[in-house]
TrEMBL record:
It comes from Henriciella pelagia. Its EC number is 2.4.99.28. The lineage of its organism: Bacteria, Pseudomonadati, Pseudomonadota, Alphaproteobacteria, Hyphomonadales. Peptidoglycan polymerase that catalyzes glycan chain elongation from lipid-linked precursors. It is a single-pass membrane protein. It catalyses: [GlcNAc-(1->4)-Mur2Ac(oyl-L-Ala-gamma-D-Glu-L-Lys-D-Ala-D-Ala)](n)-di-trans,octa-cis-undecaprenyl diphosphate + beta-D-GlcNAc-(1->4)-Mur2Ac(oyl-L-Ala-gamma-D-Glu-L-Lys-D-Ala-D-Ala)-di-trans,octa-cis-undecaprenyl diphosphate = [GlcNAc-(1->4)-Mur2Ac(oyl-L-Ala-gamma-D-Glu-L-Lys-D-Ala-D-Ala)](n+1)-di-trans,octa-cis-undecaprenyl diphosphate + di-trans,octa-cis-undecaprenyl diphosphate + H(+). Pathway: Cell wall biogenesis; peptidoglycan biosynthesis. Keywords: Cell inner membrane, Cell membrane, Cell shape, Cell wall biogenesis/degradation, Glycosyltransferase, Membrane, Peptidoglycan synthesis, Transferase, Transmembrane, Transmembrane helix. Belongs to the glycosyltransferase 51 family. This is Biosynthetic peptidoglycan transglycosylase. It is found in: Cell inner membrane. It comes from the Bacteria. The chain crosses the membrane at residues 27-52. PANTHER family: BIOSYNTHETIC PEPTIDOGLYCAN TRANSGLYCOSYLASE (PTHR30400:SF0), MONOFUNCTIONAL BIOSYNTHETIC PEPTIDOGLYCAN TRANSGLYCOSYLASE (PTHR30400). Residues 67-216 form the Glycosyl transferase family domain.
Length: 258
């Protein structure tokens, strides 16, 4: 075999190795471009929701495909009882007005409690729940958790507290395919969300950890007792101004000034 033949053989071997590598790199680059496009579109969508009502969610689609009757009535925050705002803050996220979407203080406490052998408890904020309800799906997984955390920080800054609360109360599920405060109020109590009493708001907030298991019509002993506890917490939240960033934003802003 002459020198030229040896050279040609080596060239063909080198080429045969490079071609699969180029193919893989080409597909990796395509996947990166698709991921970047999805990332950009998701953020454009998130920005639009500062003004546009949330049209639906993956969970809503799942309930519909699962055969549940889909019920939802979108309402502006001003047409939802302030009792319900105070109730969900008392039940789900007492530091809603203090954190920036993620309550790192609560996360640290949960980790420390777990390390001491205590039970693993959640530290998910209302903003994180809104992020999950609007952009993601139920269930665990680091991909969803990471995306949920990122969008919680993003929407807290982009939307502001009032808009986060408004979208939360219009997307949260109260069981049986019932989404949002207005539909829950009408179906559970036969009245508008604007007319909810303190007790009714506490009952709705009391079942949020497990709305498919716990009922408010009528409430069982556990839900009734939890609602009573929440009513006491609601008064603390109101007295300490922990709901002012939603109900009295100007008062809250003034308080934050140095």
């Amino acid at each position: 075999m002459g020198p030229d033949a040896v050279t040609d053989t080596r060239y063909e071997e080198s080429r045969s190795k490079v071609q699969p590598l180029r193919f893989v790199l080409r597909w990796v680059w395509r996947l990166i471009k698709i991921a970047l496009l999805i990332f950009v579109l998701a953020h454009v969508y998130a920005i639009s929701l500062k003004w546009v009502p949330v049209p639906g969610s993956i969970t809503m689609m799942e309930r519909t495909l699962g055969g549940h009757e889909f019920r939802r009535i979108i309402m502006p925050l001003d047409r939802i009882s302030p009792h319900l705002v105070t109730a969900v803050i008392a039940a789900e996220d007492a530091r809603f007005c203090q954190h920036d979407g993620i309550d790192f203080e609560a996360v640290q406490k949960a980790v420390e409690e777990r390390e001491r052998g205590g039970r693993l408890r959640g530290a998910s904020t209302i903003t994180q729940q809104t992020s999950k309800n609007v952009f993601f799906w139920n269930g665990g997984g680091y991909v969803r958790k990471g995306g949920e955390a990122w969008f919680a920080l993003f929407i807290d800054g982009m939307w502001g507290k009032r808009r986060v609360m408004e979208n939360y109360l219009n997307t949260i599920e109260w069981g049986d395919g019932i989404f949002g405060a207005e539909a829950a109020s009408r179906i559970r109590f036969g009245k508008r969300a604007a007319d909810l009493t303190e007790r009714e708001a506490a009952l709705l907030a009391a079942v949020l950890p497990n709305p498919h298991k716990w009922r408010v019509d009528p409430p069982g002993p556990y839900v009734s007792g939890r609602a009573g506890t929440l009513q006491a917490r609601m008064r603390v939240v109101a007295n300490e101004g922990l709901d002012d960033c939603v109900l009295e934003p100007e008062k809250w802003k003034a308080r934050q000034q140095p």
